């Protein structure tokens, strides 16, 4: 193993815990051999879904407490009762857009903040899901579901309207897999 890739943990303390995450402080030896502390966040994995309906991709517009109004693909946390990320993706898609079923494809996962958290975002694509009435959570009462042509979704990612990094990555992966 390449020595520069080696971190050694000597101890760990919980610095802070909330219902949504835990902040940890690790006593470490850094790759250059010096002692140090590494602070990091344990959070649940999340999921994003690229849903294609009649040649359009579904994009959510929502006001987020910290970021303001953003566009993103449907998604949210993988809850403890979810057996896997696909189940979470199906739940989130139905809650936010009312769509369910369809042909699901796993497009992998990514680490959105690898220096801060080991939490992953699981990326799913669904083609031609059926529609019914959405059932958003109380914190999602302001959701607007947009149906964009694929080129419009790419333009929104490039100009910053789609400001969620995992959503941008998923748009790139899903649009390249549809070709």
Write up what this structure looks like.
With 179 residues, the chain is an alpha+beta fold. Helix 2 packs antiparallel against helix 3. Strands 4, 5, 6, 7, 9, 10 and 12 form a 7-stranded mixed beta sheet that branches. A 3-stranded antiparallel beta sheet has the order 1-2-3, with no helix packed on it. A two-stranded antiparallel sheet has the order 8-11. The longest helix has 13 residues. The protein contains 3 helices and 12 strands.
In brief, what are we looking at here?
Helix content is 20%, strand content 42%. The protein is an alpha+beta fold and 179 residues long. Strands 4, 5, 6, 7, 9, 10 and 12 form a 7-stranded mixed β-sheet that branches. It has a 3-stranded antiparallel β-sheet with strand order 1-2-3, with no helix packed on it. It has a two-stranded antiparallel ribbon with strand order 8-11.
Strand content: 35-45%
Main beta sheet strand tally, sense and closure: 7 strands, mixed
**Amino- and carboxy-terminal Cα gap:** 39 Å
**Structural class designation:** alpha+beta
Count of strand segments: 12
Shape: elongated
Please count the helical segments.
3
Q: Helicity range of the residues?
A: 10-25%
């Amino acid at each position: 193993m390449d020595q520069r890739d080696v971190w050694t943990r000597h101890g760990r303390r919980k610095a802070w815990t909330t219902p949504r995450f835990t902040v940890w402080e690790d006593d470490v030896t850094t790759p250059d051999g010096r002692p140090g502390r590494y602070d990091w966040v344990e959070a649940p994995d999340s999921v994003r879904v690229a849903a294609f309906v009649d040649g359009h991709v579904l994009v959510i517009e929502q006001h987020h407490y910290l970021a303001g109004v953003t566009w993103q693909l449907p998604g949210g946390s993988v809850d403890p009762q979810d057996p896997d990320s696909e189940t979470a993706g199906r739940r989130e898609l139905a809650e936010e857009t009312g769509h369910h079923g369809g042909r699901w494809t796993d497009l992998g996962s990514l680490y959105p903040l690898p220096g801060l958290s080991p939490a992953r975002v699981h990326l799913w694509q669904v083609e031609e899901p059926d529609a019914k009435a959405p059932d958003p959570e109380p914190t999602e009462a302001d959701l607007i579901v947009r149906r964009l042509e694929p080129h419009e979704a790419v333009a929104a990612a490039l100009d910053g309207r789609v400001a969620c990094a995992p959503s941008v990555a998923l748009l790139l992966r899903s649009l390249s897999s549809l070709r």
